[in-house]
Amino acid sequence: xxxxxxxxxxxxxxxxxxxxxxxxxxxxxxxxxxxxxxxxxxxxxxxxxxxxxxxxxxxxxxxxxxxxxxxxxxxxxxxxxxxxxxxxxxxxxxxxxxxxxxxxxxxxxxxxxxxxxxxxxxxxxxxxxxxxxxxxxxxxxxxxxxxxxxxxxxxxxxxxxxxxxxxxxxxxxxxxxxxxxxxxxxxxxxxxxxxxxxxxxxxxxxxxxxxxxxxxxxxxxxxxxxxxxxxxxxxxxxxxxxxxxxxx
Length: 248
Description:
The radius of gyration is 42 Å and the shape is elongated. It is mostly helical.
């Protein structure tokens, strides 16, 4: 392989590693989205789990959940190692390169073979940077790819126990919403309800601190009777008072 082909080879290798750097950054977006999604699932499970009953399912959930969290933390660490802490090597800027070429011209201006010497040393200058930068960038990209692969591996290991924990959370009754709760109803003043026809039925439901009552037909009838009795008693009292005034 002559020098020209070697120069073209190292030039291609250099730009290949620079392009691989951008591809790794694009590949990191997928595990980042998965890590954020798994974090949201963890938040839902932690917020919804109930340890009040202390059943065997609670301990199974806690153990499997802890295993998933361990894999998740490992995946996050490999993601960070793949994303940060790496330095790439690049060829000098165009201005620096042109200054070096001008210095070569100035150095060999007194020689008869000035153009040949300038071209030779300038090519060696570019070749050197292509060689060193591409080699250094290859090592960096290989490390980042390895860390990214391990990150994805531990993401898969994270999802397996997480799926089992989610099934236990949904089906075993450890969810706070599925645990039976006791409500305390306090009556502020005495209430007397008398109904000789049939037993009194009250259908209702609790929503936070409000008790909503669905009155049955028997209760409505009882309340109407009590209201009618109160109106009759008031009317009788009023009539008696009027009669007493007319007949002293």
